[in-house]
Amino acid sequence: MSLMPFLEVSQAIALMGGDSLYQCMQCGLCSGLCPWPDVESPFRTRKLMRMAQMGLEGFESDEILYACTTCKLCVVNCPRQVKIVDVVRAMRAMIAESGATPPSLRPIMGSIHSQGNPWSEPADKREAWTEGQDVPRFDGSQEYLLFVCCTSAYEKRSQNIAKAMVKILKAAGVSFGIIGNEERCCGEALRKMGDEEQFGNLAEKNIKLWADKGVKKIVTTSPHSYVTFSQEYPEFGSEVEVLHYTQLVKQLLDEGKLKPANQFAKKVIYHDPCYLGRHSEVYEEPREILKAVPGVELLEYDRNRKKALCCGGGGGRLWMETEPEQRFSTHKMRQADEKGAEVVATCCPYCISMLTDSAKGENLDEKIQVLDVAEILADSL
Question: How far does CA 115 lie from the centroid of its chain?
Fold first, then answer.
């Protein structure tokens, strides 16, 4: 039997961006660190990598290839520096080209294509969250474009994050504005699902929109948008400076432009979002913001910063079904309860969604609040 078909699959994965695939020596550290085995999932990173190297079939199922949350825990610890997330993305791109993307993700991809967001909401409702508020429109004269991600623009719970950011930026006297209905999704979810062609199209359209509007600096509400704009858009020609809001807010606090005054006397445990933490190495800014709020008693998970447990929502998993016992966010809420936390704080809309659902599922929603760092700070101003 010829090995050529298998080699062609392996080579295709490498050509689609997974070229570090061949550096993998099958040491198994990735599988040892991955949270999936701890919740009795059949997913094993090491096995997936070997199947990719050998060009073997059978990796494309929901519970194998699409189980990966792209949390990057395996990548930052890999002794061979294999870019495992890139390999997974390349494998998904190959599956997407063949039209075999999981059925649960196809409506999400279709919604981004047609409406510019993954929530199946009308494009002209993107700025509906601003109703009743005086939110400035970006006209080229302001210093920052506030990019409110799709989740914070459309999802009711997450809209509070966008509103909190407006309050914070106004309180600090920051010159900013939003573009609103003309904006489209950053494309992060599309790329992680494997739709490279549409991701490229979105990136080019967004970059052109920024150029036409005179955007030089962007502050994002979502770590996923932050990573996409700062680490991936440059390959499409973007030269815009990008900050996650925690980076900017920390600067504003240091400069004395924000002065939290109202007490928030609660035990707050901080959850590191994967895309702000391991993907961006932003660990201290959110913690420093929480410490600046009077009354906050900051707690830590046993696994935090580079070793933090993912919420389970990345890599398209936000839109896929996961059994309660297999939800990483469920285990995070249980751990928060064990620590005596009254609030789980984070700074990612995906994490907010996952943790909020798990709090309800564990009947902890009346005992432990799930709040964004921006919401806590805004209430203290």
Answer: 20
Identify the band that residue 7 occupies on the pLDDT scale cut at 50, 70 and 90.
low
pTM above 0.85, yes or no: yes
Using CA atoms, how far apart are residues 365 and 358, in angstroms rounded to an integer?
A: 8
Measured CA distances, 52 to 65, 66, 83, 84 (Å): 10, 14, 13, 11
Please calculate the CA angle 244-350-112 and round it to the nearest 5 degrees.
90
- Do strands 241-244 and 369-372 pair parallel, antiparallel, or not at all (unpaired)? unpaired
Beta strands in the chain (DSSP E): 144-147, 176-177, 217-220, 241-244, 267-270, 297-300, 343-346, 369-372
Contact, 368 vs 162, CB < 8 A?
Answer: no
β-strands 267-270, 343-346 pairing: parallel
Partners of 299 in the β-ladder: 269
Asked if 126 contacts 154 with a C-beta cutoff of 8 angstroms, the reply is: yes
SS3 content of the chain, % helix, strand, coil (to 5): 50, 10, 40
- Bridge partners of residue 302, in order along the sequence: none
The stretch 99-115 carries a mean pLDDT of 92
**Whats the size of the chain, residue-wise?**
381
Give the chain's domains with CATH numbers.
Answer: 4-97 (1.10.1060.10), 106-251 (3.40.50), 259-380 (3.40.50.10700)
Q: What mean pLDDT is predicted for residues 52-71?
A: 83
Q: Which pair of tokens denotes residue 45?
A: 């990173």
Mean pLDDT of 159-175: 98
| β-bridge partners, 244 | 220
How many whole angstroms separate alpha carbon 268 and alpha carbon 266?
6
The two most distant CA atoms of the chain are separated, in Å, by 73
User: Token pair for residue 177?
Assistant: 């504005």
Distance CA 109, CA 160 (A): 25
> Residue 83 in contact with residue 13, Cβ under 8 Å?
no
Instruction: Dig out the tokens for 204 from the structure.
Output: 């080019």
